[in-house]
Amino acid sequence: MNFKRSQTFRIFYHLRSCSLLLFFLIGSSACLMDDGKKKRSFFFFPSSISSESGTVPVSQPVFPPISGKITYFSANTIYLSGQSGAFEFEDIQWSSSVDASYQIRYGATNCSDGILYDSSSVPASTSITVRIHAISGAAPLAVGNNSVRICLFNPSGSTLWDSYAFSVERDDSPPTVSFSPSSGTFGSSAPNITISCSDSGNSGCQAIAYRADGTAASISNTGAAASGSSLYSSSLSLPNNTTTNLSAIAVDKAGNVGAVNSGTYVVSFGNPTITIVSLSQSIIKGTGSSVLRWKSDIAGNYSVRVGSTNCSDGTSLSSGPAAANTNIDSTILGSSLSAGSNTLRVCLTTAGSNEGNSTTNITLDNIAPQIIATSPALSPNATAFALSVTQRTFSLTFNEDMDTSSTPNPQHRDQTQGGDPEIKWPGAVGSWSADKRTYTLNVQSNLPEWHKFYLLYSSSSFKDIAGNVVASSPVVSVVSGNIKLNHGTIYDTRNLLPSDSRQTDCSDENGLTISCAGSGQDGESIGLPSGLLPPGTLTGYSSDYVTADIRNLRYWKTCLVDYEWNGTTCAKICAGAFKWNGSSCVSDPGNPAKSFNRSVEDCSSLNVRNAGSGYAGKTTWRVPTISEYYTILEYGGNAGNETILEAYFPGILRNNYERYWSSTNGITINASNRYGASGNPSSPNPNHSIENLSMGPIPIGYNYSNPSLLVTWGAWSVTVFEGITHVSNKLKSTGWTNQFNYTSLCISD
């Protein structure tokens, strides 16, 4: 019994150990072979084993069935569209826990109905991608909501293990956008614009893009805003005084892109401020015009009106649209104005119906200006024809404000020559008074002695501010479009200190030698000092050589006009018939010979040298008078051509008996210009006639009743070999036999 009991125990022990091992194996097998169905479980415990018969009974094991499971990785709802450019398909991902087979069914409520879309095998624990199409698959999806089911079977497809359903929304309808408030004009406050999206296809709006620059907004099917567009997130605030051209577009979750919607918003509240920028002319004539420049701080429609008290009356001269803060030029015609002062009114109405206006004045003047005074006076003749040679300024005074943009230089006409030839005065300058009513011409140079001339202006040179040309007045007549100012000069009354001429002989009226004592002739004055200094320069003008007369306070140009100092003497700068004008060689026909008129012009041109500062800083250069020549002539030389000394004027022309013009005109003596008993004043001697050719006498009271009788064609000159000579014709540049060239020195105070 003990053996049996011991044997029984050993058998029990071994059986129990085996049963535990078997239980473990069966449990493991159940884990591997479960088909997912809940069937009976098998548990084995060996505690009930009996050994009565001496043998151990063993039961056959029962294994649980194997079952696979689906793991789904994608969205439970996907959105597709059958429209081009939208999302026609989407890939889903899932896996199976064991090797299996599967089916994809559209519109299924279980794994037996619906439409079979796809089927295949699937390895265990491997991600599977299945592409779901809206229209291109085995069967198209219906528009709207579709249930799509994944069915998992055993590898042979005989046993359903698991299934998983998800939704597919097919949306073929693009979304629409709308604005709130709608587009329009806002004249009281600025709106905040809300952009809304609506999708009738039920996938729902994905994103909205917008632009505010008048260009159509654009968006991709993924919801990305195109370049220049912005994604809408909150309401848009529009600024005042602007026009905003807004556009928007939306895309839904199925990738359908809608149509662009646009709206124009005009925001304009508050009254505009009109600024008058300028008026080109405040006074115009009937045939003239003026440009009114203005601007508004707010855009709108404008009108420019004349003769109005508000923006509804008067006459509209121009109208149109105006952008904000942009200059508008409106032309005002004189023909649209009334004589006298006119009120111009600029009116502007904004898009919000707010109005502003501003005014300025313009005057219509059709009355021609007149000269009411001249200086020097034109009458009486005793004044007009008895000017000092130092009369350098000539003024005209008008009866109204004048256009000062013109500073005319008149023609200077010599009345003592046939045809009244012009003498040019390039150094003359003109200027207007501050009140715009007086024009003054400054010839800068002294006038010639016994010079009968007139200044000739074109009447069109003088216009009032309106542009009206000067007309005749009691003071000055306008004839054939010209203003003629007649004048004449007497001799230079300023005293000059003589120098010793080195003349030692004196003679009577018959040319016979007499004693010089008490004669008053040059020979009586011996040992007088010369006032001339050797050639030199003045401060600031190191290239301009002058010969100074310190006794008479005069400056002579050391060289002729077109000659310059070369370091030792005067030399001609330009070859042949050319002259030096201070900066270049210019044509000068006949050079170096010159007429009287050309000599006056050349000396006057020195006044514009050095950018208007004048040669050597002097602006009164002119032809010397005969009296001024007297202060430099000497007769003590032996060469016969030394009356103008080389020491003071080195290099001047002296090889052809040159004559040097003076600015002293001659006066014709005849019976017509004598004083007689009928003269005014009457002469104590009826036979008394003009004496001393250049020196008068002409009593101040003489009325010059016929100034044309005071005519001469000639002027005085000096020569380097004999002193004083008279030239019969001032237009000549050579002597009677085309010899003896004429030229001139120049002098300045």
From TrEMBL:
Taxonomy of the source species: Bacteria, Pseudomonadati, Spirochaetota, Spirochaetia, Leptospirales
Stretches assigned to the Lcl C-terminal domain: 581-665
Domain SbsA Ig-like span(s) in chain numbering: 365-472
Polar residues bias locations: 400-410
InterPro entries listed in its UniProt record: Cu-Rt/internalin_Ig-like, GH29D-like_dom, Lcl_C, SbsA_Ig
UniProt entry keywords in alphabetical sequence: Signal
Residue segments, region Disordered: 400-427
Domain GH29D-like beta-sandwich: 181-260
Pfam family, one: CHB_HEX_C_1
Descriptive protein name: DUF1566 domain-containing protein
